[in-house]
Amino acid sequence: LGSRACQAVRLLEFLRQYECETIFLLGDIVDFWSLKRVVHWPASHNTVVQKVLRLARRGVRIFYIPGNHDEALRDYLGASFGNIRVKRDHVHVAADGKRYALLHGDQYDQVTTCGRWISVLGDVSYNLLVDLNQALSWARRKLGASGHWSLADYAKRKVQGAATFISGFEQALARHATTLGVDGVICGHIHTPALKQLDDILYLNCG
Known about the structure:
Blueprint: H1 8-17, E1 22-25, H2 32-37, H3 43-57, E2 61-64, E3 80-81, E4 84-86, E5 90-93, E6 99-102, H4 110-114, H5 116-142, H6 151-158, H7 162-180, E7 184-187, E8 194-198, E9 201-205
Parallel strand pairs: 1-2, 2-4, 6-7, 7-9
Antiparallel strand pairs: 3-4, 5-6, 8-9
Helix pairs in contact: 1-3
């Protein structure tokens, strides 16, 4: 929320279609980095916030695990706002008894932890790719092309070193999960969805 790339309408459709007892928000839910550059907050973004608050009032438990783009909320770790609890991480026990570590993941990104200016530059570059992708998507629709195509995903596959970075990130999260003695890890941060087995750890990234 707060960025031009936000797909708030699709998120609202998802929240309205499914009922749940618990929601885990794994960070970068509000893009404070983008909001510092330019304020972009259409009505649909307000509607998402209102929908989440209504769910909390109805008894849905919501865990908010801040990421690097909404790291200001880490000042409130351990706090509860109604049925919304802010946590650094969480261990979730699934219906089959398996345990999963839930976290954002930026603490296992060496670029984020060691070079903040590089992270900001990368964020600006990513937003540029998103803008270009919107223009290309419009052109593809006009030309009759079907299916989703992401310029950012294409760049990640083709740019030298990107695949190595993603693999290193995944391995770092798997090692962290091993030290916790859990069965898997669920994270976000690198905008690359995945579901894969890394030795004894099931690695899941919501993308």
